[in-house]
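Notebook entry, structure prediction.
Reason for the run: the old model in the group folder had no record of what sequence produced it. Starting over properly, with the input documented here first.
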Amino acid sequence: MTDILDYEKLNTRLAVDSTAFEQASPFPHIVIDGFLRADQAEALLSEFTKPPQDGGKWNEYTHYNERKSGLTRMDAMGSATRSIIDELSSDKFLNWLSGISGVQSLLADPDLDGGGLHEIKPGGFLNMHTDFLSHTKRPQWRRELNLLLYLNKDWQSNWHGELELWDDQMKSQAASIEPVFNRCVIFHTTEKSFHGHPVPLVCPDGVTRKSLALYYFSDAGAPLKLVPTHYKAKPEESTLHHALVAMDRWLVRGYSYLKRYTPLNDRFMSKLMRRKSD
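New structure, fully documented this time:
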């Protein structure tokens, strides 16, 4: 079996990377290029655009604060993709993540709630936000880390799509990370970790921004308050835009409560939206 990650390389640089993670601005994070072994990154990309194996379709996340597609169903993914997600959910990898971040007893998400494969088409975007902080269906789980693995070859900077990291008051941008092939970004997820790519993509037709998103949790031992995704406009954006971002934020909050306390889920909502558009 081909190794998916070069653990020898990752562990050799662990001390340096953990320090870099802790000291990063505006919040703990690290960028690692060449994250997967090259053949594994190529296999993941090759399966990315194939239709879901269960005959379904990708979820559509379309509202004022975002426009993207996602696939969260492991049984709908290709074998290489499943193997990579399994490796990135393994005890060995979780131990390495703990070493990088200092967060102990990490849990991988078997539901891929909000995670999985993400795709942004021309015109798509994701406004600045902090992520939901407790699992939708596992209320004792506190979200701790995000892992974003980008799969975009020959990405051009004038297409936009950079991952922006902002300070905790959303007053200034502290980092901009291009979503280039086999680049991994890991960051601590808190109520102050504002991130996103709010500038709509202007890549050519047929080109999309591709990524794998995985989220890691800890068990708080008791049910946590539901803290949904919190979108926020950038300071230079219009008053109207600020108002619409806030209005949509409350709609997302309501939907998050429905997801936790009813059978409603993203797959059902995507089907409903597609039906309305037909």
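Summary: The helical segments are 7-12, 14-23, 38-48, 79-87, 91-101, 239-261, 266-277.
The old model has been moved to the deprecated folder.
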